[in-house]
RNA sequence: AGUCCCGUAGCUCAGCUGGUUAGAGCGCUACACUGAUAAUGUAGAGGUCCGCAGUUCAAGUCUGCGCGGGACUACCA
């Protein structure tokens, strides 16, 4: 017996299926049962379990699950090793919050050992919550043996990889400009800079400084047309005057136009000439002063006179020297105080000349290095000027001492000094947004810090090339966002001055002249032994490779000097990018396993991981193994609330995934997410959408199954008979099977092409429109009428195949309902040897059953039926009232043949006795004609418009002529065009004397004349309907036989006389009796006509 | 600031290599149907396809410039 249910309850199905999976270990079987040599490799991007999962995790993991389940059902072995990301700043921050400490307290109030121990605990805080979600949403991943990034084995592999970089000379120590908080005494990560509230508007004193040009061979041309010998200055703007003493160069844009302007210094009144970008003149000069009175100008006057004198391209200024602005100290390397040319300079603001302080700006440093110019670092790590800074020595550049009102801004003093010395052209307050340290609330500095880098720039070309072999979904992320990122690749800054993370395995002598990089525990052990002997120590490899234990190890150099570990940790992104190797502890263990599972066929994460995990996987694989790490990748979008806002606890619009899953069911949630938007588009998550999916899609599929189960149980259909041959099946069965296999083919291709949304939508269309609303609706009678014979068996077999195939097609997206449906069917029929749909194989496409002509003519049937019903509606004639005929203009012989093949279906659907096919020879059809732009456009080109006008006005005779001769000569603009039938779209327009309905090229007319026979039959059908309703009210079984008594009624009599056999058969009545004065149920028939009916069960 | 995604009916989204009446579902209104019934059918209302310019015989579709939402990277005078 097929199981029958009272109603659809998705959460209940989830539970039952989960129990089944667990008891029978279906996941294990789905992996173990497949051949290891036929693997589909998936990498799990490790989540961090120190926070709770959100609804977006359901989305991300649904995608992963769908692709993996699909390939498993294609016969692949899909191992899915889970993993946990355990290091990094978020963990540290959480611990600090829990303990109520700051970074400064680490090592003082709390030991590093205790701190790290706490991190280790915290990081798995919500592991059980995550595991719970994984199970409940039906995400199949191996949770028993996950990789964990803080384990020694994992760290050892990471060390192995780092050593590989080191020996390839791709790992180096360098000096870069990084965000730095003098208050906290630490560098900040970009993550910290991007924390909410980090950027704040501040008011700074800005200065346009005058850098005096040195007149020499290089710069002489700047004076060429000058009569007097006024001093010449380059104008450069800065929002950070405190960096001016550290200035070592100026930069101009190569393509920017610069002008020389004669004017006066507004503070000193001294005549000067200045150079700045042409497009920024108006920013600094009042138009009223142009060609003003130089002679009458006094310092402080409002309008400063100026005149434009000469102009040059930025590239011409290359190498021009200038006097150091504030000469306290000079760099001891490089040829400083020159004009440099670089494209980063813009004319957005400032003067188009950029002041470069290479110690305090990343761009500054980059350009200075390009030209080999050194730097000055006139501010120390506390944020105050160094001793050499003259009158400013010891002063803090910002209020880092928390002096509040007592703090006097050194920026202002610098500005005043410049003003006095005729070196300031303009001083003003300026409001802009500037990053602040989230911990001290003070503005950060950009400061040069020591860091370890991976020389990714050295391998850039190869990484770009390898990327081109990766299949990105969507492609634009791969080419655009990721591709551009690779094109502009910078060296990868690995260093983090933190505590909880993988320690950099590099030991150095005090002077940095000798160093060692350790690539394994065994190597460390050997080095320790050497050091112990040489230095007389008794060290051993620590049990925990984290700080502080690893810091205590002292090694010895070749020359016998002691070496200490570089205290840096490495970027956690390196951890996750190492997972293809480290999850197997390669190369120390599992070499075979690793090779079988490298690279990945598929990965998927949020698009925000493009420069995160996607990059680190790619970089490590490309640089060390000359391979991609993954062949296919889906980068998923965000999950927003239904109004398109980001979900957050703060806004109270976050959706609880557990509540959603338990109330709506996992499958409805998954199906909704997948079918609603492309995975890479942002999803506007609306709970009402899940209800819709659940009602419309799962409800319909459930109803279809219930319908099948109800009658299959009555008829004891268990699919024991041999398959009906193609010839034995009626047209409609062939059609639904053809559609089914077309669907199977498309869905298979779409899953294979990583397009789950398209697959889901195709399935929905099939289930709702084709299977339920057409096949089942039209075939209902076949299931409950008549004997258990060939036609009935064909119907059962067909519907069974549709349902079981659908179960397989939906299984990747809706694993629970797919399983439920499959088992309900297959457990009874035992047609397939699988205990689970997830152990079965995707259905094979029966190409020979796909019949496009058949699908086309069924399309005609649907459209013609729809037009017929539409006409009935207009004429207000009930569908139960049979009509004599519809009239259908025949477009061409093929059309007629196609419609004739499905005629019975149309007649039954719209309750009409016959179709009258009329050809144009009868003269009652008016035809319409349109040009076929697709075939004509290319040939006609410019004449297309004229041609369309001509064709549109062709009359009936001409259309008839075209149809007869199959062609037409068109003349436009003296040109002849020979058109064929293909170049026209001819349809039927009207049938004279009839009310018609049209749908594109098809037109239908309905004969609404009623004969007495038709009326009687109409009444008979009304009677059947009323009796059926009464049967239902009386709660008779669908198989009960009955006896019917009716009151005498003039309208009803002819119907009973002529159609009593029909009525009896329809309502399963043995007797149909007319009784005078019957005491029965009164029901209304039509037009207010009433009749009494009484039923007895026989 | 740069790169990428998105912008089509009240809502969620289709719309293939450009081809002439721009679609679906939900929601709304009315009517019908009923041995699947929290389903279904028919009809109706609802669109400057974000804007502007260009290419073309022809643009929702291609190009450019904007606008709005989002993500990432950066924040620099």
TrEMBL record:
<dbReference type="InterPro" id="IPR014729">
    <property type="entry name" value="Rossmann-like_a/b/a_fold"/>
</dbReference>
<dbReference type="Pfam" id="PF19302">
    <property type="entry name" value="DUF5915"/>
</dbReference>
<dbReference type="GO" id="GO:0005737">
    <property type="term" value="C:cytoplasm"/>
</dbReference>
<feature type="binding site">
    <location>
        <position position="649"/>
    </location>
    <ligand>
        <name>ATP</name>
    </ligand>
</feature>
<dbReference type="GO" id="GO:0002161">
    <property type="term" value="F:aminoacyl-tRNA deacylase activity"/>
</dbReference>
<dbReference type="GO" id="GO:0004822">
    <property type="term" value="F:isoleucine-tRNA ligase activity"/>
</dbReference>
<comment type="subunit">
    <text>Monomer.</text>
</comment>
<comment type="similarity">
    <text>Belongs to the class-I aminoacyl-tRNA synthetase family. IleS type 2 subfamily.</text>
</comment>
<dbReference type="InterPro" id="IPR009008">
    <property type="entry name" value="Val/Leu/Ile-tRNA-synth_edit"/>
</dbReference>
<dbReference type="InterPro" id="IPR002300">
    <property type="entry name" value="aa-tRNA-synth_Ia"/>
</dbReference>
<feature type="domain" description="Methionyl/Valyl/Leucyl/Isoleucyl-tRNA synthetase anticodon-binding">
    <location>
        <begin position="733"/>
        <end position="887"/>
    </location>
</feature>
<dbReference type="GO" id="GO:0000049">
    <property type="term" value="F:tRNA binding"/>
</dbReference>
<dbReference type="InterPro" id="IPR002301">
    <property type="entry name" value="Ile-tRNA-ligase"/>
</dbReference>
<dbReference type="InterPro" id="IPR023586">
    <property type="entry name" value="Ile-tRNA-ligase_type2"/>
</dbReference>
<dbReference type="GO" id="GO:0008270">
    <property type="term" value="F:zinc ion binding"/>
</dbReference>
<keyword id="KW-0862">Zinc</keyword>
<dbReference type="Pfam" id="PF08264">
    <property type="entry name" value="Anticodon_1"/>
</dbReference>
<keyword id="KW-0030">Aminoacyl-tRNA synthetase</keyword>
<dbReference type="InterPro" id="IPR033709">
    <property type="entry name" value="Anticodon_Ile_ABEc"/>
</dbReference>
<protein>
    <recommendedName>
        <fullName>Isoleucine--tRNA ligase</fullName>
        <ecNumber>6.1.1.5</ecNumber>
    </recommendedName>
</protein>
<comment type="function">
    <text>Catalyzes the attachment of isoleucine to tRNA(Ile). As IleRS can inadvertently accommodate and process structurally similar amino acids such as valine, to avoid such errors it has two additional distinct tRNA(Ile)-dependent editing activities. One activity is designated as 'pretransfer' editing and involves the hydrolysis of activated Val-AMP. The other activity is designated 'posttransfer' editing and involves deacylation of mischarged Val-tRNA(Ile).</text>
</comment>
<keyword id="KW-0963">Cytoplasm</keyword>
<keyword id="KW-0547">Nucleotide-binding</keyword>
<dbReference type="InterPro" id="IPR009080">
    <property type="entry name" value="tRNAsynth_Ia_anticodon-bd"/>
</dbReference>
<dbReference type="Pfam" id="PF00133">
    <property type="entry name" value="tRNA-synt_1"/>
</dbReference>
<dbReference type="GO" id="GO:0006428">
    <property type="term" value="P:isoleucyl-tRNA aminoacylation"/>
</dbReference>
<keyword id="KW-0067">ATP-binding</keyword>
<dbReference type="InterPro" id="IPR013155">
    <property type="entry name" value="M/V/L/I-tRNA-synth_anticd-bd"/>
</dbReference>
<keyword id="KW-0436">Ligase</keyword>
<feature type="domain" description="Aminoacyl-tRNA synthetase class Ia">
    <location>
        <begin position="17"/>
        <end position="684"/>
    </location>
</feature>
<feature type="short sequence motif" description="'HIGH' region">
    <location>
        <begin position="47"/>
        <end position="57"/>
    </location>
</feature>
<dbReference type="GO" id="GO:0005524">
    <property type="term" value="F:ATP binding"/>
</dbReference>
<feature type="short sequence motif" description="'KMSKS' region">
    <location>
        <begin position="646"/>
        <end position="650"/>
    </location>
</feature>
<keyword id="KW-0648">Protein biosynthesis</keyword>
<keyword id="KW-0479">Metal-binding</keyword>
């Amino acid at each position: 017996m097929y199981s029958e249910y009272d109603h659809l309850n998705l959460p209940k199905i989830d539970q039952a299926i989960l129990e089944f999976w667990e008891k029978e270990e279906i996941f294990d079987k789905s992996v173990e049962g497949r051949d290891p040599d036929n693997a589909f490799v998936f990498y799990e991007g490790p989540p961090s379990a120190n926070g709770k999962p959100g609804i977006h995790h359901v989305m991300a993991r649904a995608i992963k699950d769908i692709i993996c389940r699909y390939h498993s059902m294609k016969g692949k072995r899909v191992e899915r090793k889970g993993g946990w990301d355990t290091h990094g700043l978020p963990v540290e921050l959480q611990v600090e919050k829990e303990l109520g400490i700051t970074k400064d307290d680490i090592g003082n109030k709390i030991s590093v050992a205790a701190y790290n121990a706490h991190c280790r605990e915290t990081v798995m805080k919500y592991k059980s919550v995550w595991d719970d979600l994984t199970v409940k949403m039906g995400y199949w991943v191996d949770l028993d043996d996950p990789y964990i990034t803080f384990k020694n084995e994992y760290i050892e592999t990471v060390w192995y990889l780092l050593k590989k970089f080191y020996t390839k000379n791709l790992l180096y120590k360098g000096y870069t400009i990084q965000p730095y908080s003098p208050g906290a005494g630490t560098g900040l990560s970009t993550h910290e800079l991007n924390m909410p509230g980090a950027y704040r508007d501040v008011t700074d004193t800005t200065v346009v400084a005058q850098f005096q040009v040195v007149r020499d061979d290089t710069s002489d041309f700047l004076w060429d047309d000058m009569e007097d010998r006024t001093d010449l200055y380059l104008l450069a703007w800065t929002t950070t005057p405190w960096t001016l003493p550290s200035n070592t160069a100026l930069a101009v844009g190569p393509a920017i136009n610069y002008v020389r302007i004669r004017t006066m210094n507004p503070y000193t009144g001294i005549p000067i000439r200045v150079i700045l970008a042409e497009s920024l003149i108006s920013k600094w000069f009042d138009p009223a002063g142009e060609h003003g009175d130089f002679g009458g100008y006094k310092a402080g006057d409002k309008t400063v006179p100026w005149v434009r004198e000469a102009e040059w391209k930025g590239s011409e200024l290359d190498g021009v020297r200038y006097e150091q602005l504030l000469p306290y100290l000079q760099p001891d390397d490089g040829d400083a105080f020159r004009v440099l040319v670089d494209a980063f300079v813009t004319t957005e603001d400032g003067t188009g000349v950029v002041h470069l302080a290479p110690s305090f700006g990343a761009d500054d440093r980059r350009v200075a290095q390009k030209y080999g110019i050194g730097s000055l670092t006139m501010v120390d790590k506390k944020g105050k000027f160094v001793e050499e800074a003259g009158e400013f020595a010891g002063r803090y550049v910002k209020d880092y001492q928390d002096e509040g009102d007592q703090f006097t801004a050194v920026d202002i003093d610098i500005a005043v000094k410049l003003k006095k010395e005729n070196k300031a052209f303009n001083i003003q307050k300026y409001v802009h947004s500037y990053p602040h340290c989230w911990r001290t609330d003070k503005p950060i500095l950009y400061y040069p810090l020591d860091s370890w880098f991976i020389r990714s720039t050295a391998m850039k070309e190869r990484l770009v090339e390898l990327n081109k072999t990766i299949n990105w979904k969507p492609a634009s992320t791969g080419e655009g966002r990721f591709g551009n990122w690779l094109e502009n690749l910078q060296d990868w800054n690995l260093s983090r001055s933190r505590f909880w993370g993988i320690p950099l395995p590099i030991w150095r002598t005090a002077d940095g002249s000798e160093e060692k990089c350790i690539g394994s525990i065994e190597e460390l052990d050997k080095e320790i032994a050497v050091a112990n002997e040489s230095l007389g120590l008794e060290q051993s490899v620590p049990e925990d490779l984290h700080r502080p234990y690893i810091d205590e190890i002292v090694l010895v150099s070749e020359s016998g000097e002691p070496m200490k570990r570089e205290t840096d940790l490495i970027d956690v992104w390196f951890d996750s990018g190492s997972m293809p190797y480290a999850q197997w502890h390669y190369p120390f263990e599992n070499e075979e396993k690793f090779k079988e599972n490298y690279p990945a066929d598929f990965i998927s994460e949020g698009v925000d991981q493009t420069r995160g995990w996607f990059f680190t996987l790619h970089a490590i694989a490309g640089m060390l193994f000359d391979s991609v790490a993954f062949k296919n990748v889906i980068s998923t979008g965000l999950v927003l609330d239904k109004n398109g806002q980001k979900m957050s606890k703060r806004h109270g619009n976050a959706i609880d995934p557990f509540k959603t899953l338990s109330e709506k069911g996992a499958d409805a949630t998954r199906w909704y997410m997948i079918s609603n938007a492309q995975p890479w588009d942002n999803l506007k998550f609306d709970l009402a959408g899940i209800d819709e999916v659940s009602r419309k899609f799962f409800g319909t599929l459930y109803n279809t199954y219930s319908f099948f189960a109800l009658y299959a149980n009555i008829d004891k259909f268990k699919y024991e008979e041999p398959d009906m041959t193609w010839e034995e099946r009626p047209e409609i069965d062939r059609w639904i099977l053809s559609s089914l296999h077309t669907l199977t083919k498309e869905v298979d291709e779409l899953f294979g092409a990583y397009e789950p949304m398209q697959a889901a939508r195709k399935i929905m269309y099939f289930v709702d429109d084709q299977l339920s609303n057409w096949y089942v609706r039209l075939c209902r009678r076949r299931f409950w009428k008549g004997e258990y014979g060939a036609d009935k068996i064909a119907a059962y077999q067909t519907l069974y195949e549709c349902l079981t195939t659908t179960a397989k097609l939906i299984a990747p997206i809706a694993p629970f309902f797919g399983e439920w449906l499959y088992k309900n069917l297959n457990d009874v029929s035992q047609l397939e040897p699988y205990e689970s749909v997830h152990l079965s194989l995707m259905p094979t496409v029966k190409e020979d059953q796909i019949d496009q002509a058949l699908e086309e003519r069924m399309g005609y049937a649907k459209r013609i039926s729809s037009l017929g019903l539409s006409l009935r509606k207009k004429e207000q004639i009930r569908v139960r009232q049979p009509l004599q005929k519809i009239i259908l203009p025949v477009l061409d012989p093929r059309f007629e043949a196609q419609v004739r093949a499905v005629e019975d279906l149309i007649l039954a659907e719209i309750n009409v006795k016959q179709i009258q096919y009329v050809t144009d020879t009868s003269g009652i059809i008016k035809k319409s004609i349109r040009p076929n732009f697709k075939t004509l456009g290319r040939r006609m080109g410019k004449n297309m418009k004229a041609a369309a006008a001509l064709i549109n006005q062709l009359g009936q005779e001409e259309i008839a002529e075209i149809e007869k001769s199959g062609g037409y000569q068109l003349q436009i603009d003296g040109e002849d065009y020979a058109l064929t039938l293909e170049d026209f779209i001819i349809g039927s327009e009207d049938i004279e004397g009839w009310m018609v309905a049209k749908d594109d090229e098809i037109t239908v007319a309905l004969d609404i004349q009623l004969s007495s026979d038709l009326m009687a039959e109409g009444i008979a059908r009304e009677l059947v309907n009323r009796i059926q309703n009464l049967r239902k009210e009386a709660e008779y079984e669908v198989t009960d036989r009955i006896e019917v008594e009716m009151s005498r009624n003039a309208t009803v009599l002819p119907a009973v006389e002529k159609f009593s056999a029909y009525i009896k058969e329809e309502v399963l009545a043995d007797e149909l009796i007319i009784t005078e004065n019957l005491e029965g149920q009164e029901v209304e028939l039509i037009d207010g006509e009433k009749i009494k009916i009484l039923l007895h069960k026989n």
